[in-house]
Amino acid sequence: MYVEHLSLKDFRNYAEAELALGRGANVLVGRNGQGKTNLAEAIAYLATLGSHRVSADAPLVREGCSAAFVRARLAHGERRVTLELQINKQGSNKARIGGSPVRTNELPRYAQVVLFAPEDLQIVRGDPSSRRRFADQLLVQRTPRMSAVLADYDRTLRQRTALLKSARARGMKAQSLPTLDVWDDKLVSLGSEIIDARTRLAQDLARPVAEAYAAIAGEDHRPELEWALSIRGGDPEDGDDHQESGSGSTAELFRAALADKRAAELDRGLTLVGPHRDDLILRVRGLPVKGYASHGESWSVALSLRLASAELLRAESPGGDPVLILDDVFAELDADRRARLAGVVSGYEQVIVTAAVAGDIPEALRENAVRIDAGRVLGPLSEHPLEPSDVSTRLAASTSDRDEEHGA
To answer: Which sites bind ATP (predicted)?
Structure first.
């Protein structure tokens, strides 16, 4: 699958934009803050139903407008399909496929996109919510119906937590809350499905993550993935990833953990057990990445997670390769990792790369370069080159940043 054409209206800093794309490498070049990442973000939103930069939709809508519009024509072999999305600043979004109205959660069935951006370093270095978000977006891409399961779980969690907060404020005891058992049933049913799906995902990612890491880093540091589950004791959300042994189905363990935490939940007015408090533990050389890995190792793990995601989608999707987007990544890598990454991604049907300086991109990917400036798609870089001052300023900043990040 690849994107042939992208149209934007009132999206981020674009009043209007038309961008033609082709097979192979497509490079979007422009100074920082001109809108390169916004184009990548719009394409990725169709596949993940979310932004990699913000959690709410309102910032995606151009200032002074009530809605943004994204339209993409995708090629699946000889077939063409047009996806349209209306992102509303308030209220539910709307979607169309081939001109016919559909639910927005139908879009990932057609759009397969994997985006890697500097923000992905938070997957390995940030709090557990970053890792849960990574896993859940990939779950939705693999199995679109999981979008509804995750949404139903979030609603159930909010309602159950609201009941706990109300009971705490009124000094009520568990026996005075018969409706809590009803919410427990829904929480266990939906949450168990999410936990099992995440566990399978970690197992499926293990081999491609190890292969991608070795390809990028040039070394085998034995990367590992394992979920720390709140239903097995501890509280991963608070940094306690202790796991107790125990037998039984996920639902049985979940229900037992809720019973064990009931008093603490009423005391704190919080739901303390469930997939919303789990954490994906990442390790290299047998040590947690967070707190132990070097900057280069952390980048390699984050990249490996995205490349492994692309490999899973490539293997499972009847539409073939996902679109692979590398947003301002090469400037953050040393020369060896740049070359290795270029070699890994060059076989994908479509790769979209953003960069402030085309020279940051290995020659093998430096095709179809387009100049982006102040929310405008100007055209081929050969016809709209960057000013020398732009290049020299960016190169000086880039060199300084890399010396600081990749120094001793």
So the answer is: 30-37
pTM higher than 0.90 for the full model? no
Q: What are phi and psi of 270, to 5 degrees?
A: -135, 150
Q: Is residue 50 part of an annotated ligand binding site?
A: no
To the question of whether residue 376 is assigned a binding role by annotation, the answer is no
Q: At what angle do helices 146-170 and 128-142 cross, to 10 degrees?
A: 140
Alpha-carbon separation of residue 251 from 107, 191, 255, 257 (angstroms):
31, 8, 6, 10
Please compute Rg for the chain using Cα positions.
Answer: 23
Q: Is 31 annotated as a binding residue?
A: yes
Do β-strands 224-228 and 279-284 pair in parallel, antiparallel, or remain unpaired? Answer: antiparallel
The model's pLDDT over 17-64, given as tens digits with 9 standing for 90+, comes to: 999 999 999 999 998 889 999 999 999 999 888 898 888 999 999 999
Domain assignments of the chain as residue spans, ordered by start: 120-316
Whether 36 has a binding-site annotation, put simply, is yes
CATH topology of domain 120-316: Glutathione S-transferase Yfyf (Class Pi); Chain A, domain 2 (1.20.1050)
CA-based nearest residue to 262, from 328, 177, 332: 177
CA distance 241 to 243: 6
